[in-house]
Write a structure and sequence with these properties.
- Helix 14 crosses helix 19.
- A hairpin with a 5-residue loop joins strand 4 and strand 5.
- It is elongated and about 120 Å long.
- With 557 residues, the chain is mainly α.
- Helix content is 62%, strand content 3%.
- The chain has 5 domains: 149 residues, no CATH class; 61 residues; 45 residues, Arc Repressor Mutant, subunit A (Orthogonal Bundle), CATH 1.10.10; 166 residues, Four Helix Bundle (Hemerythrin (Met), subunit A) (Up-down Bundle); 97 residues, Winged helix-like DNA-binding domain superfamily/Winged helix DNA-binding domain (Arc Repressor Mutant, subunit A), CATH 1.10.10.10.
- The chain is built from 26 helices and 5 strands.
- Strands 3-5-4 form a 3-stranded antiparallel sheet.
Length: 557
């Protein structure tokens, strides 16, 4: 037995609940009688309370602090419940009608929430065994009448539903439909608004709307309130929210309350977090007591405020964009180690918290914390990458040969740097520059020869195409990239008819597969003779010679 504001009353409740069975109902009724006379502004001695409940005066001992009326009323209601829990008291033990919560709500034409609110304001409740054999909260007719006599105006105002006419009910439903369609407001918001406009109690409006929805599900104001949305609808709601569509508009469009829209949004946020792959390099320090305070004591911003080494001289042969990279200071070894420790720890913590997500009980604070950690990890990662971009530039300049430009190599190297940051283990003692340099150069060793091979295969599919490429005055195998050459050829091929272009592309392997097809195979593909394919090809080649270099067309005859 707990929850008592006054400890002596809690002790008294234990004694009464363990007393004789034939006396316990009397204790309950005496407690209700005392509740009816206790007034919040007054104070009551403990001896007086014991005498009113039991008829006996307690032995005199150390004087106890008197209780104020408000505290006493709350503790007496708790005492009634605890004594009722100690034995089975049937509703037949009382004369007059006895109601459970739904029954009393129907009797007075109010909602069950109104009954609960009345209980907090002094309506005495018991726990009794009903004829169906179940024990639940019960209200005596005499208790309701006593409460109504003290608060008749408030009780009548809350129960005015019985005075509504059919026209008034129809007007309430009509106005509620208009408000929900326009704003998507929730039921209690609509009820408050209409109560002010129509001079009715909030509970009357709420009860009217709920009754209409229950009796007319096809034309209900909140007809989709209990119908679960599918995954596709939830995805649409989430994407609209991310693009700035107000929640009230989404609520109106989908026939939901704003609270349900927010729950759908949180569910989609949780699903994305659960489906996201969070990679990190684990370290045993992450599980030590106080690890979060020890590791996250300093962020990348604080590291930037530490003394930095002198700014290196910017090479003169770099474009302005690359020169700006030298404005970002390099990281000292201890700073780099600390940033990597923070980077992996926040991802580790985000992953641990993500595993505890429950789609049936999603808390916004939990989602927000995980998302903040992932954003912090991304911030630290970007800080590390910016401080090491000049490393990519220096390695790319050394590999600048063949068809690729400096910017293409740098772009390729940046991807390798990002992967190196994600896989780097700071606990091994080496620097990121050592690990990243190896990764970048290894990637260049694979990508640069592959690009040259693709270029060779593209332009040497046949002698004719090689000569055509050479006929482009702007083509230089050391200055033109594969993409630029492909764009130039596609621009020229666009001048041919569709049949001519198909024959040239497939015969010389200029499509994505790079495989050339014979004239016989092309004839079957196009449904024409082999000789006709040869004639169309010859005509297309003549067109290309003229388009590419009309003043030197005779060189290729």
């Amino acid at each position: 037995m707990g929850g008592y504001q006054d400890k002596p009353i809690g002790e008294l409740a234990k004694e009464l609940a363990a007393g004789l069975l034939r006396l316990r109902q009397g204790y309950i009724d005496s407690a209700e009688a005392l509740m009816s006379v206790a007034k919040p502004p007054l104070s009551y001695p403990y001896e007086f309370v014991v005498y009113r409940l039991t008829g006996y005066r307690p032995r005199r001992g150390a004087p106890l602090e008197p209780m104020d009326g408000k505290t006493l009323r709350a503790d007496l209601q708790r005492l009634i419940f605890d004594i009722c829990d100690s034995f089975d008291l049937a509703v037949d033990a009382y004369q007059g009608e006895v109601f459970d919560t739904p029954g009393l709500a129907r009797k007075l034409h109010v909602s069950t929430k109104t009954i609960q609110r009345w209980r907090r304001r002094g309506l005495v409740a018991r726990k009794l065994v009903f004829p169906d054999g179940k024990k639940r909260i019960a209200f005596l007719e005499s208790s309701v009448e006593a409460f109504a006599s003290q608060r008749s105006q408030r009780l009548l105002r809350s129960a005015r539903f019985s005075q509504l006419t059919d026209a008034e009910r129809a007007e309430i439903v009509h106005r509620a439909n208009r408000i929900v369609a326009r704003t998507g407001s929730r039921l209690h918001e609509v009820s408050r608004h209409l109560a002010r406009r129509m001079g009715r109690a909030v509970e009357t409006i709420r009860y009217t709307i709920r009754g209409h929805d229950r009796e007319n599900p096809a034309d209900a104001v909140y007809r989709q309130r209990d119908v679960p949305l599918g995954d596709q609808a939830k995805e649409i709601i989430y994407r609209c929210f991310l693009h700035g569509v107000p929640v009230t508009s989404l609520a109106g469009r989908f026939g939901r309350t704003r609270g349900s829209i927010y729950r759908i949004i949180n569910e989609m946020r949780a699903r994305q977090l659960l489906g996201r792959e969070i990679d990190y390099v684990y370290n045993p320090q992450f599980d030590l007591p106080g690890a979060e305070e020890m590791i996250l004591g300093r962020g990348p911003e604080e590291a930037a405020e530490a003394p930095q080494p002198p700014r290196p001289r910017t090479p003169d042969d770099l474009p302005p964009y690359l020169k700006s990279l030298y404005d970002v200071p390099l990281l000292r070894p201890e700073e780099e180690r600390q940033l990597f420790q923070q980077y992996n720890y926040v991802k580790y913590r985000a992953d641990q918290l993500r595993r505890k997500l429950d789609l049936n009980r999603i808390r916004t604070s939990q989602l927000r914390r995980i998302e903040r950690m992932l954003v912090r990890a991304e911030t630290i990662k970007n800080w590390i990458i910016r401080a090491n971009l000049r490393l990519v530039v220096s390695i790319a300049k050394k590999h600048l040969r063949g068809p690729q430009t400096l910017f293409e190599l740098i772009s390729d190297g940046n991807v390798s740097l990002m992967r190196a940051v994600e896989k780097f283990d700071y606990a091994r003692g080496c620097k990121l520059s050592t690990y990243a340099s190896w990764a970048i150069m290894k990637n260049f060793a694979r990508s640069v020869p592959k690009e040259r091979y693709l270029l060779d295969r593209f332009v040497t599919g046949a002698d004719e195409m090689l000569e055509l490429a050479a006929g482009m005055g702007s083509y230089d195998p050391h200055a033109t990239s594969l993409s630029e050459l492909r764009e130039s050829l596609e621009a020229v091929l666009a001048q041919l008819t569709s049949r001519e272009r198909s024959i040239i592309v497939y015969h010389y392997g200029l499509d994505d597969t790079g495989e050339s097809q014979t004239l016989d195979k092309l004839s079957r593909r196009l449904g024409i003779s082999k000789e006709r394919v040869r004639q169309i090809e010859r005509r297309a080649m003549d067109k290309l010679r003229t388009l590419l270099q009309p003043d030197r067309a005779d060189l290729m005859r």
